[in-house]
Design goal:
With 223 residues, the chain is α/β, with parallel strands linked by helices. Helices cover 30% and strands 27% of the residues. The protein is built from 6 helices and 9 strands; from the N terminus they run βββαββαααβαβαββ. A 6-stranded mixed β-sheet has the order 5-6-7-3-8-9, sandwiched between helices. α5 links the parallel β6 and β7. α2 crosses α3 and α2 packs parallel to α4. Bound molecules: adenosine-5'-diphosphate and magnesium ion. The site of adenosine-5'-diphosphate has 12 residues, from β2 and α1.
Length: 223
């Protein structure tokens, strides 16, 4: 059986003060193994982003246990074996697109010339070369999202978490982005979790975890 990357048992996340809590994640138990490809589906507010942030180690659970057996401690996940493409704007405003994409490599102490070259190569593979020298403020929402995904891919993570990466793309661009993403994770063997509203995106992954009101209500594995 492939290596166990993430193991969550009764993971919950509550925001806010006593008496005014939001149970963003009421309860989730799950495993992610090497190379798995999961669609996290559910209506807006169902807890998808909360769950991804917990898996990425960006946030900590309020209850339950969450461990990364094959990846290390929470502090070691990013930059490192785990990368996250965020739902909202996340690029650093003073840096160009290429500099933003190269950043995780620089943080991992890859020499600057190599980091720059790898960033440009990936932008090229994603059809984003024309954007390389632009600043984030010059991008459309969909462009910024694709650059955010490039930044998450560049370090060849073991686990890639993408929060509605096609949310601002039309159907054709969304499918092309999925082609690229799936080719890339196939090549690197990365596990992939994508939060999405789009059934046509979810269909392209091997498993579907359905969220409703902070609970994982169904887990389906395709044939
Ligand atoms: P989804 O990504 O499925 O839309 P989220 O995980 O963003 O769902 O949100 C789940 C619930 O938690 C929502 O009710 C949302 O309003 C709430 N929530 C998310 N983040 C916070 C926060 N930082 N503070 C308070 N409530 C939050
Ligand atoms: Mg969300």
């Amino acid at each position: 059986m492939p290596e166990l990357l993430v193991c969550g048992e009764h993971v919950a996340k509550t925001y806010g003060e006593r008496g005014h809590e939001t149970h963003a994640l009421a309860e989730a138990s799950f495993e992610i193994r090497a190379g798995e490809r999961v669609a996290l589906v559910g209506p807006s507010g169902s807890g998808k982003t909360t769950l991804l942030h917990l898996i990425a180690g960006i946030d900590v659970p309020s209850a339950g246990t969450l461990e990364w057996p094959a990846l290390g401690r929470r502090e070691e996940l990013r930059p490192g074996p785990v990368a996250m493409a965020f739902q909202g704007p996340s690029l650093l405003p003073p840096l160009t697109v290429a500099e933003n994409v190269a950043l995780p490599l620089l943080l991992a102490e890859v020499p600057e010339a190599e980091a720059t070259e790898r960033a440009w190569e990936l932008l090229d593979a994603m059809g984003l070369t024309e954007l390389a020298e632009k600043l984030p403020e010059e991008l459309s929402g969909g462009q910024a999202q694709r650059v955010g995904l490039a930044r998450a891919l560049v370090s060849r993570p073991v686990l890639l978490l993408a929060d509605e990466p096609t949310g601002q793309l039309d159907h054709e661009h969304a499918q092309r982005l999925m082609d690229l993403l799936l080719a890339r994770v196939h090549e690197t063997g990365a596990a992939l979790v994508i939060a999405t509203h789009d059934d046509l995106i979810a269909e392209r992954l091997d498993e579907r975890w359905a969220m409703l009101d902070g609970r994982m209500v169904a887990e389906v594995t395709h044939a």
